[in-house]
Design goal:
The protein is of the alpha/beta class. The chain folds into 2 domains: 124 residues, 2-Layer Sandwich (Nucleotidyltransferase, domain 5), CATH 3.30.420; 179 residues, 2-Layer Sandwich (Nucleotidyltransferase, domain 5). It is built from 8 helices and 12 strands. Strands 3-2-1-4-7 form a 5-stranded mixed sheet. The longest helix is centred in the C-terminal third of the chain and has 25 residues. It is globular and about 60 Å long.
Length: 325
């Protein structure tokens, strides 16, 4: 029996059908949800899931369940979005109930990093471990925590927001939460544009130009842009990659000290950076941990890829999620 996973992000809405072994049978994607309000977005998500099921010849009512992964703070046991910064509205919004009413099926709601963590735990790089932490580093930074084979969500359902832990309290870099010096202000793409522009002024490099357009000025700088310049040996770009790796290594050290997991799995767009990026993350961690590592701690890249949110959401719906609607 198939289950359905829906991944709601700021720029992409995806819905997929997943079997009990974590195989993606079919997937549909759209960006029609961008800019929509709460009710209209639920109509869009329900419509996409309906299109998916019709194309696959499957009735929504016959699914093992529907899971939704979404960025932000989720009170999963109640199926409520507490808040999200990527979408319009969604303050204390009963998403699971609203989508369930539209689909005529049970819906569970979960944070997107938790969905990715569950996919890796069940089918990917975390398979075989009872205790693991999944960290995603991309536009933002988040984590999913597995303890004794279960997702740890915390009292409100917001556990794992490691990107908002503070590493540089006197920093000039302000996070989206309003605090200074969060990991998200120093090691993800949210603050990459401002960081690159500052380094360009100091180092006098051409990181602000488009590497594929003969030096023409670029727009907003993202991870792909920085990496392209790093491949060309740009000092500012290489410095950013090294700084990000060191910050992420420090993050892993903090995770190790606080949770002492059996494994740490790293995912997200920044894991596509080469040039020794991942090796430097691990080296920084092991430099800090030294002889405090009493047992082996594998630090590995995620295996499932871009659709891990869809697969994780669908699998949580099958396995039994925190909310009922």
């Amino acid at each position: 029996m198939l289950s359905c996973g829906i991944d709601i992000g700021g720029t992409k809405l995806a819905a997929g059908l997943v079997d009990g072994d974590g195989n993606l049978a079919r997937i549909e994607r759209t960006d029609r949800h961008v800019g929509l309000g709460e009710a209209e977005m639920m109509d869009c998500a329900a419509g996409l899931a309906g299109e998916l099921c019709r194309a696959a010849g499957v009735g929504v009512a016959s699914l093992a369940g529907v899971g939704v992964g979404m960025t932000g703070h989720m009170r999963g046991r109640d199926g409520v979005v507490i808040t999200t910064s990527n979408l319009k509205g969604f303050k204390n919004y009963p998403l699971a109930a609203e989508l369930s009413r539209r689909l005529g099926a049970r819906v569970i709601l979960e944070n997107d990093a938790n969905c990715q963590a569950w996919a890796e735990y069940r089918f990917g790089a975390g398979r075989g471990y009872d205790d693991m932490v999944f960290i995603t580093a991309s536009t933002g930074i988040g984590a999913g925590i597995i303890i004794d084979g279960r997702l740890y969500r915390g009292q409100s359902g917001t556990a794992g927001e490691i990107g908002h832990t503070i590493i540089e309290p006197s920093s000039d870099a302000v996070c989206t939460c309003g605090n200074r010096g969060c990991f998200m202000a120093h090691a993800c793409t949210l603050n990459l544009d401002a960081l690159a522009r500052g380094k360009s002024r100091r180092l006098k490099t051409d990181i602000l130009s488009r590497p594929d357009a003969g030096g023409a000025p670029c727009g907003r700088i993202d991870g792909k842009h920085v990496y392209a310049h790093a491949l060309r040996g740009d000092k500012a770009a290489l410095e950013i990659i090294h700084e990000y790796a060191d910050y992420l290594g420090i993050m892993l050290y903090n995770v190790f000290q606080f949770l002492n997991p059996q494994a740490i799995v790293m995912g997200g767009g920044l894991m596509n950076w080469e040039l020794g990026f991942f090796d430097r993350i691990e080296a920084k961690f092991r430099e800090l941990a030294r002889d405090m590592l009493f047992d082996p701690l594998p630090i590995v890249k995620a295996r499932i890829g871009d659709e891990s949110g869809v697969i994780g959401a669908a699998t949580l719906a099958r396995d039994g999620g925190p909310s009922r609607a």
